[in-house]
Amino acid sequence: MRSVVLTKGVPDFSEGAVSFNEEGHLERGKTPTVMNPNDRFALEAALQTRVRHGGHVSAMSMGPPGYASVLEEAMADIYADDLYLLSDRELAASDTWATAITLCSAIEKYEREVAPVDLVFAGFKTADGETGQTGPQTCWGLEWPIVTHVLALDIDPDEGRLRAKRLVEGDVDEIETVEAPLPCVVVADPEFAPTYRKASHRLEHKRLRAETEARGEEYEDHLTTWDHVDLNLDSEYIGLDGSPTIVSSVDPIPKAPAEREATMVDPDDGEAMESVFEELTAFAGGD
């Protein structure tokens, strides 16, 4: 069973980490990059598949050279065997369409030069775009079946089929069971929860973790970088030139006003500190 997991680096949107310029545009160079949170569910689905059925797992991302750290994190999460980074200047500013074209080309190159792929796992949506389009668009380019909003899944390797439980149009109150032939694309829902009920699965999970800890220390030895020339991509169809989406601006979300009053106290002011002590004494007693 061979799987490719798509993951992406996104700006760290935690309070105080995001940097905007005077026009309200995100400054990516001054904002830390973290793994897209929803990709973790795709990683968990891929890991569960590997633990249950064995095989090989590759993590793939498109972005600047710094995204190698995101792939390193992905290796640690899914115990990936190898990593693929799609990176060069021509790919910069790609929207979901241009990104999907690049990912399709990379997966096709992977199948030609490495091995046929059974499953491609993708996250529900990214924290910086919120479109949920890249996984389905990549699937469209590959002309494979796709199963979205996946909550649970298993594989029948002999029959070459996937069986999954999925939310119906994202409705948590309605779940359906579907089947799809391999190869196919799986988009994991944020409600996805991996299960390892058999002792053999738990032991395999432990073995893979120990094996990957050693591999992760030298993750760059397992990293392959492809640019648009390697992928035989025309620059007119990738990057900004190949992106039909136009973003007029990005507006920062204003910080919510504080609802509690605060009194500033100088720790060197003995009288003021005494009043703080008196105020807290009642709470220390449980009142």
Concise summary:
The protein is α/β, with parallel strands linked by helices and 287 residues long.
Largest sheet: 9 strands, mixed
Amino-to-carboxy terminus distance: 60 Å
SSE order, one letter for each helix or strand:
EEEHEHEHEHEEEEHEH
What would you report as the Rg, rounded to the nearest angstrom? 23 Å
- Number of DSSP strand runs: 11
Can you give the helix content as a percent range?
A: 25-40%
Specify the CATH architecture. 3-Layer(aba) Sandwich
What is the 3D shape?
globular
Describe this structure in words.
The chain is α/β, with parallel strands linked by helices. It has one domain: HUPs (Rossmann fold), CATH 3.40.50.620. Helices cover 30% and strands 23% of the residues. It is built from six helices and eleven strands. The protein has helices spanning 39-53, 68-78, 96-113, 134-142, 199-216, 270-284, and strands at residues 2-6, 9-11, 33-35, 56-62, 82-86, 119-122, 146-156, 161-168, 171-181, 184-188, 223-226. The strands form two sheets. The protein has a nine-stranded mixed beta sheet, with helices on both faces. The termini are far apart.
